[in-house]
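Below is a filled-in request sheet from our internal design queue. Each sheet records the structural input a requester submitted and the sequence that came back. We keep these sheets so that new team members can see what a complete request looks like end to end.

REQUESTER: design group, bay 2
PRIORITY: normal
MODE: inverse folding
CHAIN LENGTH: 504
BACKBONE (tokenized):
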């Protein structure tokens, strides 16, 4: 793979707890992931991004990191992580891990020291008086400790924020990056990347943060073709692309695309905005339809309101599964054809729906608990994957799963879908195989096919056409390579995408 493999890569997101269980305790782990590497190879992805695998009390699914240089015992050992990295590399699959620099865990050595020793508090945000900030998960952003001081946590109380005005915090994270680069990881996904610094009035996108990423880029560059990927949720595109300047992060998630409704004008606007803001900094765009924080696409696209909004997360509103599925297939081919890299969140390739009927007493997401249940949270997109068989746990591992799986998932197991040529899984496999040769990094040229149609051609000669209108549209010239659904009398029906190659 080239030095710039990340510019056009297809990256598969593994939420380890829910991927595959190797030791039968109901929780996904490294042994399970290792056993499924052939599945990922067949799927045709270039890299895996793993959510945090560090020792953690799991107050926020591992985003409460107790030790940045270890592996959570429930997931495996450091030696096994190294073996996993080697095995992935043997299959030509890169490994990207999460790093969480905004906050730690109350179980970390540093925080435990801070609790007992007032002199050791400068690594965090301890104050005599809290301000009025609210936690992103709901409730106050400050918690009081026994001696009366308060500490800041933008997320759950178990996730104390680091003080990035302290140089020791900088040194610590540079060292953590090196620790994992030396163990072969190919890159980092940087959690809450815009939040690190705080002023009296703001905790988002302070200018000082860029100096940190310049330094991290120098560290990454020392190791060769490694990548830094930012989780940067910012409404302002200009502010967003500052993170992608040539001496900062390599790429960042495209949340505008992820949140965009299934509407042609809006999609066209977001795609154009993405391309025009990325071009000046030379960073490749990314195309993301889902992740472990958002509603599953087949559910979202089957609703009347097809947008995603964190604050206004919809739950239990009617969704037409057939329509959602059809659109999710069309959206997948659109996302994979656009110039840049693409992300696939585990289970997206199986067309899994959001599980909306989880029993409340089994919900684990702090977003659910801290909002008093008004926000149903993210458990519904984190249900353990169905691999095979006719009943739960569908080949996940042992005899149970940490969140219950719907009975109806017998129809969508990887095994069932492998045998069905028209399945979502086989669509993803075929599309990713073609994508490798014909798509990825580059540019596009729009074709004009009316207001309801998104149509463009890529350097390879591949043309992608998505029809979001109600009526079928005639195909442009070319040989049909792949469609997200059947054509109707040679025309492209509603909510369908086609890939065509030039006739020659
Ligand atoms: C990011 C993660 C999310 C986590 C939060 C706090 O947004 O994607 O899952 O809860 O950061 O670390
Ligand atoms: Ca396990």
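RETURNED SEQUENCE:
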């Amino acid at each position: 793979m080239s030095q710039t493999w990340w510019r056009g890569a297809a990256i598969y997101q593994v939420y380890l707890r829910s991927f595959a269980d190797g030791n039968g305790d109901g929780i996904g782990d490294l042994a399970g992931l290792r056993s499924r590497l052939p599945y990922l190879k067949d799927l045709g992805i270039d890299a895996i991004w793993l959510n945090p695998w560090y020792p953690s009390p799991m107050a926020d699914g591992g985003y409460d990191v107790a030790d940045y240089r270890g592996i959570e015992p429930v997931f495996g050992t450091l030696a096994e992580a190294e073996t996993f990295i080697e095995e992935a590399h043997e299959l030509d699959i890169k490994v990207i891990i999460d790093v969480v620099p905004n906050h730690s865990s109350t179980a970390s050595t540093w925080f435990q020291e801070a609790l007992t020793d007032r002199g050791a508090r400068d690594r965090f945000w301890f104050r005599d008086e809290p301000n009025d900030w609210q936690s992103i998960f709901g409730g106050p952003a400050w918690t009081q400790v026994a001696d009366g001081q308060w500490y800041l946590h933008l997320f759950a109380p178990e996730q104390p924020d680091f003080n990035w005005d302290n140089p020791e915090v900088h040194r610590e994270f540079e060292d953590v990056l090196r620790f994992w680069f030396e163990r072969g990881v190919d890159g980092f996904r940087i959690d809450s990347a815009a939040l690190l610094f705080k002023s009296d009035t703001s905790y988002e996108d302070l200018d000082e943060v860029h100096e940190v990423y310049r330094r991290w880029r120098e560290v990454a560059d020392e190791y060769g073709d490694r990548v830094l990927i930012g989780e940067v949720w910012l409404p302002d595109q200009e502010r967003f692309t500052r993170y992608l300047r040539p001496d900062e992060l390599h790429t960042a998630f495209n949340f505008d695309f992820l949140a965009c409704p299934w509407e042609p004008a809006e999609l066209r606007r977001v795609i154009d905005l993405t391309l025009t803001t990325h071009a000046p900094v030379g960073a490749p765009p990314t195309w993301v339809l889902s992740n472990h924080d958002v509603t599953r696409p087949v559910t979202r696209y089957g609703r009347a309101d097809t947008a995603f909004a964190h604050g206004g997360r919809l739950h239990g509103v009617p969704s037409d599964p057939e329509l959602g599925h059809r659109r999710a297939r069309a959206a997948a081919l659109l996302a994979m054809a656009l110039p840049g890299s693409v992300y696939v969140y585990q289970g997206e390739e199986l067309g899994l729906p959001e599980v909306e009927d989880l029993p409340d007493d089994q919900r684990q997401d702090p977003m659910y608990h801290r909002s008093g249940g008004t926000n149903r949270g993210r458990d519904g997109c984190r249900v353990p994957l169905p691999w095979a068989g006719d009943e739960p746990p569908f080949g996940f591992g042992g005899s149970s799963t940490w969140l219950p799986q719907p009975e109806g998932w017998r129809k969508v197991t990887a095994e069932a879908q492998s045998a069905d040529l028209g399945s979502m899984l086989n669509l993803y496999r075929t599309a990713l195989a073609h994508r490798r040769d014909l798509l990825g990094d580059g540019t596009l040229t729009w074709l004009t096919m009316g207001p309801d149609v998104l149509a463009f051609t890529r350097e390879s000669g591949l043309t992608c056409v998505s029809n979001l209108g109600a009526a079928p549209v005639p195909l442009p010239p070319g040989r049909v390579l792949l469609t997200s659904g059947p054509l109707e009398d040679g025309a492209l029906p509603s909510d369908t995408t086609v890939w065509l190659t030039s006739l020659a």
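SHEET NOTES:
- The pocket of calcium ion (ligand 2) is lined by residues 21-23, 25, 27, 29, 397 (CB under 6 Å).
- The chain is about 25% helix and 15% strand.
FILED BY: M.R.
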